[in-house]
Amino acid sequence: MTVMSIKADQRMVFLCLLVAGLIGSLAGVPLTIAVLSDPAVGGPVDPQTIWLSALREALLVLAPASALGLWLGKKVGLGAILPEATGPDAAGLGGRVRPILGVSVAVGLAFAAPGIIGLFLFPPGDFGPGLGNPTPIDWLLRSLSAALTEEIAFRLGLMTVLVWLIAVVVRKPGTNDSVFWAGNALAALVFAGFHLPPVLSVDTPNWGLVFSIVLFNGLAGLAMGWLYARYSLVSSMLAHFVADVVQHVIPRALAAIAG
Fold first, then answer.
1. What are phi and psi of 209, to 5 degrees?
2. What DSSP state is assigned to residue 39?
3. DSSP states along 163-225
4. Where does 122-159 have alpha helices with state H?
5. Considering the entire predicted model, what is its pTM?
6. pLDDT tens column, 138-177
């Protein structure tokens, strides 16, 4: 493969990530509108503002994260979007994704279980105002949104950059285990903190819930980072999507049917 064809491939991968980031950002808008329209959050809101904010997120956050991840990933052994094609049955998207389905779904289910338990352990109001407004469909779209946008931002972007920075500082290759796990842990901590604003926005935060969210999402972030490095970004996206659907969508859909 020539240098020119490699660059063309990278441009195509970046374009696909740009589209994925755009879809992910827009998919999360219905839930955001439903939550922010609640008077307890300060609603009503202007939907057009939320849609434009999603576009800005895709262009100003996810696009640079994708570019950095693809560029620096090659230097530290990261940045794979899909698993490598191996064997005669690996041709096409299905053949490359099929081998990682089992481990991706298993990791997603493993981290969905504690989240479901948390829904019963803590009062609904402790999770933040407005979260009872979205429909199961809104949560399904948000699950897709989180899987695409958060994995691009926190794994492909932030984690790759952190591993590269640590490798430069300690003068070790990015493939070194200690370098990788240090970068993965730092990205996981930021990922965990990203989930705290709703629970901290209530008048009296439930600090047990805050600790649980940091622990749960921190461990989940480590697992997603491992999937990203070991299998591909698509693997961490699949696990993230499964975890969110099982935790957020299925219980609410069952409650709606029962009600």
1. -70, -40
2. G
3. HHHHHHHHT--TTSHHHHHHHHHHHHHHHHHHT-HHHHSSSS--HHHHHHHHHHHHHHHHHHH
4. 136-150
5. 0.94
6. 999 999 999 999 999 999 999 999 999 999 999 999 899 9
